[in-house]
Structure formats: structure tokens, C-alpha cells
């Protein structure tokens, strides 16, 4: 029976969360909104539409949503040629692939952004498929992105593990019925990840790789 190793990307495999914080903050500022950076950080991991709604509320001027998202995309795009992978991200994916896991990325990124992230990870030969938020009706924390990743891998939830760095990841994985592994490299506290459903938490991909024999991937 196929088993899936599903990975979030931003903040989990590539060190981009604080780039997102800065560029979302600037995009919101340009639209006339003063949102604290700590609030933006907590929202990273949501899809663009959900992130704007989470930060500005339901009574916001929705006509600005597209403008804000476009500004963020343009600002963040300046970093595409130098996105930094987290330690041993590519080695971790290769190791799991060699161990017989179907490695699937579950991300809200698409197009040039996803291509830049995959270049940073440098493990395309180990990646079975990519599940984008564009492929589902609801992004994280809804379970659909993880469920779609499992469909692409042809793996049942009880034979699969989801690795992510945000509470949105942990909630999505828990709702999809998979075992959830958290990583601290996205900047979210351990206690928050555990409260949201993480079975175990590691520092970063390198820590998880070193601990594989005792991890949910054992």
C-alpha cells in the first residue's frame, strides 16, 4: 500500500516566512492598512484571499483584496532568484523517496513562485506530485489540500504523514486524518503547533532527517 509524505513548503522546506511577513506588511501598508508584523506572521500559511480576510476582517473593502494580493506577489517576486532552502530540506525528501515514501508538496504557491521554491529545494527527482491550493475549493486549515495530496499519491490517510510549520498546517492535517509533524523553522512556538495537532515537533528538516528512525516516518 502506498504511503505519502506530504510537505508544506514555505517555512517548512524553504526559509521564506519572514520574507512573506515583510512583503505582506508592505502590500497592506500601500493599501492604507497598518497591521502589526506579528499578526501578519501568525497569518502566513493561509492562502492569499484567506490571509487578507483574516487580517482585515469581513467588513473590509473587498475591492482592495486583489490589489493587495498583487502587490504582495510583485514584492515577493523580487526574491525568487535567491530563496534559501532550510537545512537538509532536499536531503530529507530524497531520503524519504529512497525509503519508499511518495513525497507530495501541499502548498498555496503556484506558477513562477512554485518553480522558484522547487529550485531552492533542489529535489525534483524525489517529488511525486504537488497539490496546490488552486486545485481545491478551500485552502488550509481546511483538510482539502492534504486530502488532494493523498489522492495524488494514491495513499490512505492512515499510512501518511504531513509535515508543516504553522497551526494552519496542523489543523489541516488533523482534519484530513494524517499524522502531523511540526517544525519550528517557520517561527511558530512548539506549544502552538502541539495544541493544533502536531504529534511531534522538530527544529527543522535537518533535525527531522537525523531523527527519522524514531519519527512517525519510522
UniProtKB/TrEMBL annotation:
A Pfam entry, by short name: Hydrolase
GO function term, MF aspect, one: hydrolase activity
Keywords of this entry: Hydrolase
E.C. designation(s): 3.-.-.-
Top enzyme category: hydrolase
Protein name listed in UniProt: HAD family hydrolase
